[in-house]
Design a protein that fits this description.
two-stranded antiparallel ribbon; mainly alpha; 64% helix; homodimer; 159 residues; DNA-binding
Chain lengths: 159, 159
DNA sequence: CCCATGTCAGTATCACTGAAATAA
DNA sequence: CTTATTTCAGTGGTACTGACATGG
């Protein structure tokens, strides 16, 4: 069964028949899919998904964010974030307190358990990204970041 | 402690407090999320999602693929592809014929309706990618493709 | 008998739309 | 009253694991 591991990738994985844009699409969706895949594995092994862990990491750096601010950082719809936060609160990873200044808002903090998740590295998406960045080197990393930002901008324009 | 941290709210999107890897993660998840978002909008407006359309585009170029081959091209688990194909078949976009050579296999073809979807451009993920690639230029496109491939490899190693 | 191909059932997260509740 | 913030209900697609049917 390990035999089926793309015996000849050059004919399928990078098929010359697909054309530049389509090949790029294939690659992009493969990355997207792989991120979701790892996210799924993380959930089975560690108990949190990729997006959930990103929330944890960001709150570790910026405690006391409101839900709306966090949604903006993540480019997420507020109603999507609600579900993510509910799952994290259920697992007692995150604490939601009412903002004393503005009662509509919730401000967000990690619990002690949350800080332990913040410190994890093995088996996370981040771990793979870290290796990729190391392999790319510092200048390529900056270039890639600019490229991703351009891609993101143009995707956001597709409305 | 009465430190006012309400610096530019716009600096949140590119916050300097996050660090290189975490910023990269944020950007990467933003791209992933935007792809899913557009996919959702496509489904509402055109009737097919992003992954479904990628299947259509690839089958348009390579008709007669088997399900297993297609799963390999897409880096998808066969059982995931089953659902995608079922939805496309239901919409009569795709036709599944038994392989005359090997009865376990199904070989896949677009219907006439499927070929119309293959020709669409407006409002698709591809359209945004195309604009981004045009903006990047040919040499940068090649660089980005290499970078994505490295990223994909390292992500796949996160098992 | 054993392996390969593919489907099916069950489970969970994400991502939206649209409406509603609450507070500024 | 109007606007802002967040939650809630409902819908659908993706992605797996593990079991299974069927053909080579």
């Amino acid at each position: 069964m390990a035999e089926k591991r793309n015996a000849n990738p050059s004919s399928l994985g990078t098929s010359p028949h697909l054309g530049e844009v389509l090949e790029f699409m294939q690659l992009l969706w493969a990355v997207v899919h792989e991120m979701q895949s790892i996210s799924k594995r993380m959930h089975a092994q560690l108990g949190v998904t990729g997006p959930q862990r990103l929330v944890i990491r960001i709150l570790g750096r910026l405690p006391g964010l409101t839900a709306g601010q966090l949604a903006a950082v993540l480019h997420l719809h507020p109603s999507t974030l609600t579900g993510v936060l509910a799952r994290l609160e259920e697992k007692q990873i995150l604490e939601r307190r009412p903002d004393p200044v503005d009662g509509r808002r919730a401000i967000l903090f990690l619990t002690a358990a949350g800080r332990r998740f913040d410190a994890l590295r093995a088996g996370t998406v981040e771990h793979g990204v870290q290796r990729a960045l190391a392999r790319l080197g510092h200048s390529h990393t900056a270039t890639t970041r600019r490229t991703l930002r351009i891609l993101l901008e143009e995707l956001e324009r597709t409305s």
